[in-house]
Amino acid sequence: MRIVRLANFVAPRSGGLRTALNELGSGYRAAGHEPILVIPGPAAATRDTPAGTVITIPGPVVPGTGGYRVLTARRPLRRLLDALRPDRLEVSDRTTLRWTGRWARSRGVRSVMVSHESLDGLLRLFAPDGTPVRPLADRLNRATAADFDVVVCTTAWAAAEFRRLGVPNLVQVPLGVDLDRFHPRHRDPGPPGAPGEPLIVHCSRLSAEKRPDRPIDALAELRRRGVPARLVVAGDGPRRAALRARAAGLPVTFLGHVADRDRIARLLATADVVVAPGPVETFGLAALEALAAGTPVVVSRHGALPEVVGDAGAAVDDDPRAYADAIQDLLARDEGERRRAARRRAERYGWPAAVGGFLAAHAVPDSQGARR
Q1: Torsion angle, CA of 101/107/110/111, rounded to 10 degrees?
Q2: Cα dist from 299 to 239, 276, 295, whole Å
Q3: Of 152, 90, 70, 145, nearest to 115 (Cα)?
Q4: Torsion of the alpha carbons at 57, 2, 48 and 28, rounded to the nearest 10
Q5: C-alpha 116: how far from its chain's center?
Q6: Which of 147, 201, 324, 367 has the smallest CB count inside 10 Å?
Q7: Over the stretch 242-278, which tens digit does the pLDDT of each residue have?
Q8: How confident is the model over 289-343, as pLDDT tens digits?
Q9: What is the pLDDT of residues 154-190, one digit of tens each?
Q10: Are 298 and 325 in contact (CB under 8 A)?
Q11: Residue 150: beta bridge partners?
């Protein structure tokens, strides 16, 4: 089967979405299918990768996103889709790409929309006060569900905005984590810093919806309490300069974007606590990677992260003192026990099971299923 996948907001410095697209594409290929990923870029290009063929077509940069591009030109994309003649269509953006569901239906192609974001949650974050958010989200979500044969959500929290509408074509498939790459054995036995200095890590895109200021404010609160913690921030984005100014005088190291996944694995395994405060995360791959590395995670009680982290971390209100309290509580636990609990939680999630679930949503054979 030729599975053509469309995605926006994918760039060389992308995080979780790029990881998911790569892992799923590799899994589709291993199962005997032909994955083709179409993404926006500065120029047209085609290349072969372990995750399948990647076709880049020109797309404009979205202002204020730090360089993310989107596919907006319908005519060339429609021509490309007609030329590719997919057996299945998988779409990972429900803004400029929602129309492709109707294209697929007109060609008799089964289509899947993967909901990587909560429309209801994003509107609540960014809509002006007084905006009737829920009716608008409901109207757009109904249209999405009507345009595609299947809507895939990765957590119950992400699926809730569709379930309340009684959407009949909704399925829930969790994502996975590379349990070999992200493993406690990669912990650095001699990290820099004085003994007894807890290492806190925040690993995400530095944009408003990720709430990257919360780890900095939590660190300030911990230092005020006399806890000699330090913070390492891995990631880049439009909030970088403002965050550097906010962290002035605090022991915060900004690594910028880290392309080396093995380096990220070592950092997460070496951390004492990871903070993932995004309130509208629909899954949270970075948090799951931290758990796989044996490190507990403090998350916002809003969003899907409490569902993923479970008892291997803590879910708190959006307040620096609450984050500081949770970090101190986790540090007070026996280190071996908290790291074992994190790893056990992550072992519930593997990419082979995720690939199998997505292929089932596509209603295509999974030749590797017996091995999963």
Answers
A1: -20
A2: 20, 5, 13
A3: 152
A4: 120
A5: 7
A6: 367
A7: 999 999 999 999 999 998 999 999 999 999 999 999 9
A8: 999 999 999 999 999 999 999 999 999 999 999 999 999 999 999 999 999 999 9
A9: 999 999 999 999 999 999 999 999 999 999 999 987 6
A10: no
A11: 112
> How far apart, in Å, are the Cα atoms of 244 and each of 6, 238, 319?
35, 12, 20
> What pLDDT shows up at residue 192?
52
The fold for domain 184-346 equals Rossmann fold (3.40.50)
Angstrom distances, CA of residue 208 to CA of 126, 216, 220: 9, 14, 19
In the beta sheet, which residues pair with residue 54? Answer: 37, 47
| One-letter amino acid for residue 112 of the chain | V
Confidence of residue 194 (pLDDT cuts 50, 70, 90): low
Return the domain boundaries, the chain: 2-176+350-371, 184-346
Phi then psi for residue 62, to 5 deg, are -85, 120
Which amino acid, residue 359?
Answer: L
pLDDT above 50: residue 372: no
Q: Give the separation between CA 155 and CA 303, rounded to whole angstroms.
A: 10
Give the separation between CA 243 and CA 137, rounded to whole angstroms. 31
Distance CA 105, CA 49 (A): 29
Q: Which amino acid is at 192?
A: P
Q: Which residue shows structure tokens 């650095």?
A: 188
Amino acid at 176: G
pTM of the model: 0.91
The alpha carbon dihedral of 95, 100, 106, 109 has a sign of: negative
H or E element that contains 203: strand 199-203
CATH number of 2-176+350-371: 3.40.50.2000
d(C-alpha 130, C-alpha 45), whole Å: 44
Same fold? 2-176+350-371, 184-346: yes
Alpha carbon dihedral 10, 312, 124, 204, in 10-degree steps, equals -30
Closest CA to 237 of 62, 60, 59, 19: 62
Cα torsion angle, 223, 227, 230, 234, sign: negative
